[in-house]
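Internal tracking record. Fields below are filled automatically when a chain is submitted to the structure queue. Please do not edit lines marked as system-generated. If the sequence contains nonstandard residues, flag them in the REMARKS field before resubmitting.
Queue: standard
Priority: normal
Entity type: single polypeptide chain
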Amino acid sequence: QVHLVESGGGLVQPGGSLRLSCAASGIRFSINNMAWFRQAPGKQRDLVADITTGGSTTYADSVKGRFTVSRDNAKNTVYLQMNSLEPEDTAVYYCRSKSAFNRLTYWGQGTQVTVSS
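SYSTEM-GENERATED OUTPUT FOLLOWS
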């Protein structure tokens, strides 16, 4: 059974930092491209950042220079380091895996990030 479990969300002041983690089980983590999405109330779920099996990364324009995605294949975990957080970053953040071979996709349950003073 596949599980993607996000953690690290919470309440932070503008300008602060958080690091999200997504621990995967039940998949061959090293052959999965991993991504972070976010969804604010009343809005669609948007891609924030992704990282390929080879470590290549892409970012949404709104987070470039502030967020960093990384992965640790030994720990089956993907991270999202979020710096200089803004109120507009408030959302539920979701982790997604996508197999590089058969494109099979799984989602985590999400973790809430709230940026507010």
